[in-house]
Amino acid sequence: MQPKGQQLIGLDAFFAAGAPIHAVNPASGEQLEPAYASGGFAEVNRACELAESASVAFRTSSLQQRATFLETIADQIEAIGDELIQRGMLESGLPRARLEGERGRTCGQLRLFASVVRAGEWLDVRIDPALPERQPLPRVDLRQQHIALGPVVVFGASNFPLAFSVAGGDTASALAAGCPVIVKAHSAHPGTSELVGRAVQAAIKECQMPEGVFSLLFGSGFEVGQALVSDPRVKAVGFTGSRSGGMALMATAQTRLQPIPVYAEMSSINPVFLLPEALQSRTQALAEGFIGSLSMGAGQFCTSPGLVIAIRSSALDTFVAATSKVISGIATQTMLTPGIHSAYEQGVKALSDNVGVRSLGNGDASDAPNQCQATLFTTSAEVFLNDDRLQDEVFGACSLLIECDDMAQVKSVAEKLEGQLTATIQMEEGDIEQAKLLLPALEERAGRVLVNGWPTGVEVCHAMVHGGPFPATSDSRTTSVGSAAIYRFLRPVCYQNMPQALLPEVLRDGNPLKVSQLMDGKRVV
Amino acid sequence: MQPKGQQLIGLDAFFAAGAPIHAVNPASGEQLEPAYASGGFAEVNRACELAESASVAFRTSSLQQRATFLETIADQIEAIGDELIQRGMLESGLPRARLEGERGRTCGQLRLFASVVRAGEWLDVRIDPALPERQPLPRVDLRQQHIALGPVVVFGASNFPLAFSVAGGDTASALAAGCPVIVKAHSAHPGTSELVGRAVQAAIKECQMPEGVFSLLFGSGFEVGQALVSDPRVKAVGFTGSRSGGMALMATAQTRLQPIPVYAEMSSINPVFLLPEALQSRTQALAEGFIGSLSMGAGQFCTSPGLVIAIRSSALDTFVAATSKVISGIATQTMLTPGIHSAYEQGVKALSDNVGVRSLGNGDASDAPNQCQATLFTTSAEVFLNDDRLQDEVFGACSLLIECDDMAQVKSVAEKLEGQLTATIQMEEGDIEQAKLLLPALEERAGRVLVNGWPTGVEVCHAMVHGGPFPATSDSRTTSVGSAAIYRFLRPVCYQNMPQALLPEVLRDGNPLKVSQLMDGKRVV
């Protein structure tokens, strides 16, 4: 099946009437067909209307029904076959292996959420039975579960055309929670989006889910995106993208008559701390590992290591020489969009122009369109501590090495950092005291703290936190990857003295759904 | 011990230099001594500095230490003795029995949170062990816990001088989470606040907690309150009060360089639905129960039943006649402050002046200062559905009965409601279908749905939700009462491939703290 350029609203598919959007093949610069005529108010209104009308039926569907629906979406995505991969390569410039891996991750994620839905931990069932004899006052029967917030708007991200897009982590976790989803497709990969959207439509039909459970709109972020976030029927927003884009959505959500949560994953430079003994004993391996993590996927990851911190030493000199050598062998890679490429070039130029910063080397250059040339800079801790601009994310394969006088200065750098998705410590046994010194500052600033690894590569599992304090995300209490992502789309409801016949099934006597419960404050599995 | 009029910052107590604040005895209108000279920037700065400096030590204190600290606060509050009750009566106009009950609730709440801290459920421990043999890629060891957000600012509420004030639910849950707390005392009960604040100071000394764990500031909401919420060292805010006050804090928190969560519990009219068979079979009991709930504490509860909805019938006529009769016997009660009293009179006048609304009766009147005269109004569903002002909370013993033509209109009223703390259904077995029809709309609009009870009286337990969609609160995903209130002050952190010696104790192998865990997604108690 080839993409047609249609908006998908509920089970409908049709051409809108707004200005056309064309994807661009970033490797060649050529415009891709078909055009996507932008949606407008009518499409937003219709999608919200359908989502609202599906809301109660979907959130009260059985755990089994919802889990099967998620699995069916995964099956339908796989059923698209190689056309999905080919279209993704064309629109994103990403290589085949990466997109095949990403498809695996996307479908695995949907199936993980199916198992999460079935297990029912997310319902956070709490039962405090009546205590009619209690003095001075009896206690009435009180039971709690979590319910879905209602329709959720998801913005597809540019850098993961499958895993953070139409049926990516935000959509999977929102559907798992029981929220209808309206996706605003990213204009960089509309064809990929449409193909996945049609797979979701097929799953809705196959599972006989209410039609309004899913819509996919194409249009400008400003018009369609802001209209969606402003709509009173929308109850939460998931977004992965730029800091300015996320903050615009946060502002819109806060000025609504009824403010709603926005889960924006925005900007992170992912500091890596090279502690002395590790630097001494693994100099070459660290240089190779670092440049490998930095250049992977042209550095177009939220978790790309944009900052490396170490104490001046002869080992650091050797590390610097090694990284300069390794980076010089890195070939250019096609970036996702012309816009991302030009922002990267601007970010690199700002560092080049900064008198406090000097170059440590580059990868290959190329005259082909939208090529990312890997770049490494260095500066001193003094300069870094006095120049907030050096914390700005440069999205792509660019990193900055901070040279420190001593461990106290390393700690000052750590404490100066904004919120991050990740912070990494490279250490050996002899570095343990320094690591202990750093850990509190890193815990307070990052969603994930790693030892002896590289931040790129985010496992989709139960303990993952892909989040962190602002500006890494808009809400440090949450994760956008892993099973805990479902909690973003839920709220607790307490049922007091409710007859069994009226109680939601999961709260009835005898634990009919066999879900883990907090009974009078004690965990019962 | 008598209150002295001093600011309490860390373990210090001193007189500030700003404009004096005097409490007023609302029963007599007389000013009470001592004066509280307002704090200003210096006090805010000092309290934030101390709180930040205590932050790591406090959040990494052992579960046992923190639990004992909470219990010691309760002991120290009880040790104040009757002076606390007497001062509370003087400043609030509330009767002795109510304040004694509230003290019991406050201390019980602190002890509940001590048990919650020890049990460790709130840490949400998740462990995904390494899978070195996994194909195509191995999995690295990933572990998650929740950590404290950092310093929290709590605004004391006027209507619970103990249970929602200096050492009330917000403070107890924030301390339990491991967050230092800075309380901005409510100016209506500064003496009560100071006494409780000194009890907390005594507990800090006794338990050798870091000094900055607690401060208590007196001053204007605008100056001191906004300065606290703006301070970059503050990481979250707890507030119970008016809609305008809560929204001002939300706006301030959102415009900070680093936005922070504000948990504001604001406004709710707590609809009560009288279904036909219940109304028919329990007419007199419902009238008495309703007026009892409405007039309790002069209606000065967030959960006071400000709206009653029923279908026109002869049973409703009987109910109306009975409520008119019952309310006519209700004596006036002293309201908490002159400001609350005048806002109540204005709210009642707005309803009296509304041509679509008519009176159903009043309680006693009185010429004494700040007396609340209970008041009941009625209107039709048509009028209600077309006049949003009728959803404005009138804080005090005032309620509005909505007469509906049929069940469809009752449902329309339910679907028109803003977010609420509670929604109540009065029903008999024959009403079950109507209750099922209403439940989805009520779940979506209220934090707690009750059957055959009255919304006043909030149990402090594990299943309680004292929360709800905006404007009931600023964040429907949370509760401010009950053990789940602790989650407001936590965020998840993931530890990847971290050596045992560096891991937080609770995440180490062998579950040394015996805390419930999610191991590879499976619950292990």
Automatic annotation (TrEMBL), chains A, B:
CDD domains: ALDH_KGSADH (cd07129). Pfam families: Aldedh. Its EC number is 1.2.1.26. InterPro entries: Ald_DH/histidinol_DH, Ald_DH_C, Ald_DH_N, Aldehyde_DH_dom, Aldehyde_DH_Superfamily, ALDH_KGSADH. Keywords: Oxidoreductase. One of its GO terms (molecular function) is 2,5-dioxovalerate dehydrogenase (NADP+) activity. Residues 21-467 form the Aldehyde dehydrogenase domain. It catalyses: 2,5-dioxopentanoate + NADP(+) + H2O = 2-oxoglutarate + NADPH + 2 H(+); 2,5-dioxopentanoate + NAD(+) + H2O = 2-oxoglutarate + NADH + 2 H(+). Belongs to the aldehyde dehydrogenase family. This is 2,5-dioxovalerate dehydrogenase. It comes from Neptunomonas qingdaonensis. The lineage of its organism: Bacteria, Pseudomonadati, Pseudomonadota, Gammaproteobacteria, Oceanospirillales.
